[in-house]
């Protein structure tokens, strides 16, 4: 298994020590640094490109639609996105015990959690569903996601199984 992926998962654990006002910026800068690294793993690059795009989208839409919202809300959403992606990596992408059909079912579960929990109800489907509709993407999630609700949906589904 790839060393970079394990490093990313380890960084998840260290995120709890970052103060609330720095979470969004910290996650964004880590994703950007990974993308700009000389030769990162393609999977790592795709995961971090999605994080960066999702965070940029979220920041832009919050300024437009929720200009009075607190930085804490943005940070909580960013951290939930970070956790959502890390659970996806651990439970779906790196789970060698998962059959092909189990992997497809798991991917659909994550896709549904993302799609079914919009944050902004953005009507620009071409933008918001650009990853979701791309069958070549490993992060087939909607950019317009309430990541806290999507994460809660994934955790609730995990408890059922």
Feature tags:
161 residues, mainly alpha, 0% strand, globular
Summarize the SSE layout with pairings.
Elements: H1 3-14, H2 23-36, H3 42-65, H4 71-93, H5 100-115, H6 125-128, H7 147-160
Describe this structure in words.
This protein has 161 residues and is mainly alpha-helical. Helix 3 (42-65) runs antiparallel to helix 4 (71-93). It has helices spanning 3-14, 23-36, 42-65, 71-93, 100-115, 125-128, 147-160. Residues 1-7 and 9-18 have low confidence and may be disordered.
Number of strands: 0
The major β-sheet equals: none
From the alpha-carbon coordinates, what is the Rg to the nearest angstrom?
Answer: 15 Å
What's the end-to-end separation, in Å? Answer: 25 Å
Mean pLDDT: 87
| H/I helix tally | 7
User: Stretches where pLDDT falls below 50 for ≥5 residues?
Assistant: 1-7, 9-18
**Share of helical residues:** 55-70%
Q: Strand fraction band?
A: under 5%
SSE run = HHHHHHH
Globally, the shape reads: globular
> Structural class of the helices, strands and pairings?
mainly alpha
Q: What's a quick, concise take on this entry?
A:
By secondary structure, the protein is mainly alpha-helical. Helices cover 66% and strands 0% of the residues.
């Amino acid at each position: 298994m790839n060393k970079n992926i394990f490093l990313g998962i380890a960084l998840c654990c260290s995120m709890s020590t970052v103060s609330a006002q720095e979470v969004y910026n910290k996650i964004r800068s880590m994703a950007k640094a990974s993308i700009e690294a000389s030769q990162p793993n393609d999977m790592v690059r795709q995961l971090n490109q999605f994080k960066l795009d999702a965070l940029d989208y979220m920041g832009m839409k919050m300024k437009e639609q929720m200009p009075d919202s607190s930085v804490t809300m943005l940070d909580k959403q960013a951290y939930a996105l970070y956790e959502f992606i890390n659970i996806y990596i651990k439970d779906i992408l790196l789970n060698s015990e998962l059959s092909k059909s189990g992997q497809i079912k798991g991917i659909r579960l994550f896709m549904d959690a993302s799609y079914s929990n919009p944050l902004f109800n953005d009507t620009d489907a071409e933008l918001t569903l650009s990853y979701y509709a791309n069958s070549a993407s490993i992060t087939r999630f909607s950019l317009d996601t309430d990541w806290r609700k999507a994460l809660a949906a994934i955790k609730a589904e995990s408890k059922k199984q």
